[in-house]
Specification:
Layout lengths: L7 E5 L4 H14 L2 E8 L7 H9 L7 E5 L1 H14 L16 H15 L3 E3 L8 H12 L4 E3 L10 H10 L15 E4 L4 E4 L29 E8 L2 E5 L2 E2 L2 H14 L4 E7 L5 E7 L1 H17 L2 H20 L5 H13 L5 E8 L2 E8 L7 H4 L12 H22 L3
Parallel strand pairs: 1-2, 1-4, 2-3, 4-5
Antiparallel strand pairs: 6-7, 7-12, 8-9, 8-13, 9-10, 11-12, 13-14
Helix pairs in contact: 1-6, 3-7, 4-5, 7-8, 9-10
Length: 410
């Protein structure tokens, strides 16, 4: 599809400098009518100013879409991922990765509603987000035209962006005229900081990088305790009080921040092939992961639990790489959700100086039996003599191997 054939574009719009420049660039380079979409995913910033900025740049009010997606984000994207205990490369809780499919989904919905020919995102040509957005677009609307300005234009530096903005009378915040020390992405699950002063992985990140947590050494000297209730694998309450998904995550973020929980300094392997250093803060998610594993420890059978742990890295990689809408992710999700049928109960955690430790767990469906594990008289619940045969059978191949080894030539 040639530029002249694109009449209307739905732009993922934050209201910041980059997407404002993209908005004007679409108007000048494509001559297209621009529809803006701004998603509130709990990033902690005001969303309404984006509306005024879009109007200032000539966007018709009926072409401005702003949606509060916090509940949908946690309920339909974060919680299914946490049922899997998904972490990428052993530590990353996928806060940015899991937000992209929802934004892509909404852009496609709006494109259909307004009859747009194309969708546009502001991700660079070096990162993972371009992949995540576009895999989502194509999975939901195979014939959609995707515009990725950073792969097309010649505005290759902050200076050129500012010059374009000034030339086209795009309002620029005073603090945007200087070089930003690092790039930030945030939502209700986490915040991520990358680039500029963080590009040297040998250097410790400065304290200004951290916005959602206090330093563990500055956390209270007295531990806090919290009890999280679960129903079928999803957290539903805090200290006995029922909460909506977004409200629950917000509360856990408050608790995590106050106790210095959830910091991560990571060099990760991007899907596009390079290594990248990022500093992540996931205070509530870190608590939630510990709690979920805690309730699973008494409600999941060993075979089911170990199978989940075997599959988890594959599932996490699918999300990281942008394959949320793929059949393989949906197949794994069905398996994971099946495992959660009896993952109901409550978990008590101790929060102290960067740590979230499970200190109690209970469930009406618990598989834990005090009668079986007691050091006292188990009243016939378990015959210890049975262990001898069990061990001998499991040792049979080892004994056979040892016998052959003893016969081997010297």
């Amino acid at each position: 599809m040639a530029k002249k054939d694109i009449k209307k574009v739905v732009l993922a719009y934050s209201g910041g400098l980059d997407t404002s420049v993209i908005l004007k660039w679409l108007q000048t380079e494509y001559g297209a009518e621009v529809v803006t979409f701004t998603a509130d995913l709990g990033q902690g910033e005001e969303i309404e100013p984006a509306r005024q900025k879009a109007i200032t740049l000539g966007i018709k009010p009926e072409n401005i879409f702003i949606e509060d997606l916090r509940e949908e984000f946690v309920r339909d994207f974060v919680f299914p991922m946490f049922r899997a205990n998904a972490v990428y490369e052993g530590v990353y809780l996928l806060g940015t990765s899991i937000a992209r499919p929802l934004i892509a989904q909404k852009q496609i919905e709006i494109a259909r509603k307004v009859g747009a020919d194309a969708v546009c995102h502001g991700a660079t040509g070096k990162g993972n987000d371009q992949v995540r957005f576009e895999l989502g677009y194509y999975a939901l609307q195979p014939g959609i035209k995707v515009i990725a300005p950073w792969r097309e234009w010649d505005l290759t530096s902050r200076t050129k962006l500012l010059e374009f903005a000034e030339k086209n009378q795009i309002p620029i915040a005073k603090d945007k005229r200087g070089e930003a020390p690092f790039s930030v992405d945030a939502n209700l699950l986490h915040s991520s900081s990358e680039g500029k002063v963080l590009e040297d992985p040998s250097q410790e990140a400065d304290s200004i990088v951290y916005m959602r947590t206090i330093a563990p050494e500055d956390a209270p000297d007295k531990a806090s305790y919290v009890e999280i209730g679960f129903e079928k694998g999803d957290a539903v309450s805090i200290d006995g009080e029922k909460r909506s998904p977004a409200s629950l995550m917000t509360k856990l973020n408050v608790l995590g921040k106050a106790n210095g929980i959830g910091r991560l300094d990571l060099v990760e392997n991007r899907f596009v092939g390079m290594k990248s250093r990022g500093v992540y803060e996931t205070p509530g998610g870190t608590i939630l992961l510990a709690a979920h594993r805690g309730i699973e420890s008494i409600t999941l059978d060993r075979g089911a639990a170990h199978l989940k742990d075997d599959l988890m890295p594959r599932y996490a990689e699918m999300i990281y790489n942008g394959f949320w809408f793929s059949p393989e992710r949906e197949m794994l999700q069905a398996l994971i959700d099946k495992s959660q049928e009896f993952v109901t109960g409550s978990v008590r955690l101790k929060l102290y100086k960067g740590n979230s430790d499970v200190v109690g767990r209970s469930s009406p469906y618990s598989l834990y039996s005090e009668k079986l594990v007691t050091f006292e008289d188990d009243q016939g619940a378990y015959d210890q003599k049975d262990a001898a045969g069990f061990i001998k059978l499991n040792a049979l191949r080892l004994r056979t191997l040892a016998s052959r080894k003893n016969k081997s030539p010297k």
